[in-house]
Amino acid sequence: MAKNEAPYRCDECGWTAFKWVGRCGECQAWGTVIEVAAPTTRSRQVKPVIPLGEHVAKPITEYSGEESGHRPTGIGEFDRVLGGGIVPGAVILLSGEPGVGKSTLLLDVAAKVATQGKSVLYVSAEESAGQVHLRATRTGGLHERLLVANDTDLGLVLGHIEYQKPDLVIIDSVQTLSSGLIDGSAGGVAQVREVAATLIRVAKDTTIPIILVGHVTKDGQVAGPRTLEHLVDVVCQFEGDRQTALRFVRALKNRFGPTDEVGCFEMSGDGILEVPDPSGLFRSASGNPVSGTCTTVALEGRRALPVEVQALVVPSGAPQPRRVVNGVESSRVAMLLAVLERRAGIPLSSADVYVSTVGGIRLHEPGADLAIALAVASAAKDIPLSNTTVAIGEISLAGEIRPVSQSAQRINEAQRLGFNTVLDQSHTTISNAIADAFAKSPQRQKQPDF
Q: Which pTM was predicted?
């Protein structure tokens, strides 16, 4: 190596340094700075090789897409996210936080595929075969065509695939496998890249689909090199609060289908259950109107879900009143409180405000602004809104109600569920929406004195 060249380089972005550091100075990734080996020979040009046999390029019209179509797994919500099923030869990466239920979901997928008469190889590199058997017994996933291997060596896994020739391979997880050709412990950048590249090559050569379980960092990103997400065909994220039973599967990348689909599941004592119609999961069961509640229709992917927003406003003697939120963005709620006090004349600066969603769902889109504002206004005035009223709209700093994306789909879903009053951008301002919502209130109670 020349003396003027930096001997250390980041394996992610290519940043170079003259001494080893634990964190890259460019992309801020940890553990990616490695020593560049000195070249032993002078670089040579790669000689062209004449393709023969099956390697000869053919017109695209001579290929058939029927053999590469989606094959359903038997779990409708998972197939929805994948675009209809698993494509032969595809490599799917499923990531999620520890304990969210990744292994439980994939064991259920393996059992459903095995019941279709196909063989499935489940490589458990984190649990013993006996532990997998206990979980399969609890979830009802025992099947003779479901094969379980408990190995962490990549060579042994490749031997299992070549000997068993399964129809589906599940690796749990890719960070626990290691290759003897690469130095370093399992989970390192070089090891994860080598393991993923080898499994992808096997999947493309044998047309056997492979599902990889990926760990995540504390920031929610897939652990390992960023190139892992570029190499695979589909990247799915399994998310949900471990304190609640609700789980979501989102497609962050999909070469064979849409990336805006969301699968809904529910964890139970018998495993994980799909929820084809989650319209009643995010609304309270109370039939009587209560002040401080308002329903909106949020979009999760291409699915419209009714979500109830609850608010509580109480007087506060503290110099800095509390603002507690759950399921919504705190900065968004702070902005809406300022708009309500300035544009709608509702005093909130001397009151504690609590805002939460029902069912543990998180609302990140601005289409829920109007529902949050109406819930807070209803709690502040102690006037309940009608149970048949739904609010859809974004609120600007000027107090105007702005339209949201796919409003027609939201309104159709609201009408299907029995909501006959829709408050949206047609009311122009937040003051008009509050007045109209209170006018349709089933009862009016005395306004608080604060």
A: 0.76
Q: Give the residue, 7 or 272, on which the prediction is more confident.
A: 272
The residue assigned the tokens 């599940």 is 170
Alpha helices in 40-101 (DSSP H): 76-82
Of 399, 350, 352, which is closest to residue 373 (Cα–Cα)? Answer: 399
DSSP letter string over 108-157?
HHHHHHHTTT--EEEEESSS-HHHHHHHHHHHT---TTEEEE---BHHHH
Number of Cβ within 10 Å of residue 402's Cβ equals 15
134/230 same-domain check: yes
Q: Is residue 320 part of a domain?
A: yes
Confidence at residue 276, expressed as pLDDT on a 0 to 100 scale: 82
Q: Are residues 259 and 305 in the same domain?
A: no
Which sign, positive or negative, has the C-alpha torsion 288, 354, 300, 400?
Answer: positive
Q: What span, in angstroms and rounded, lies between the C-alpha atoms of 363 and 74?
A: 30
List the one residue out of 61, 68, 95, 62 whose CA is nearest residue 83: 68
- Residues contacting 397, CB < 8 A, separation 6+: 335, 339
Beta strands, E only, 367-445: 389-391, 394-395, 401-402, 421-423
Amino acid at 305: L
The 10s digit of each residue's pLDDT in 323-379 is 999 999 999 999 999 999 999 999 999 999 999 998 878 898 899 999 999 999 999
Which domain does 321 fall in, by range?
293-439
* Per-residue pLDDT reduced to its tens digit, 119-135: 999 999 889 999 999 99
Distance of alpha carbon 165 from alpha carbon 234, whole angstroms: 22
Give the pLDDT band of residue 36 (cuts 50, 70, 90): confident
Torsion sign (Cα): 318, 320, 321, 323: negative
Number of domains forming the structure of the chain: 3
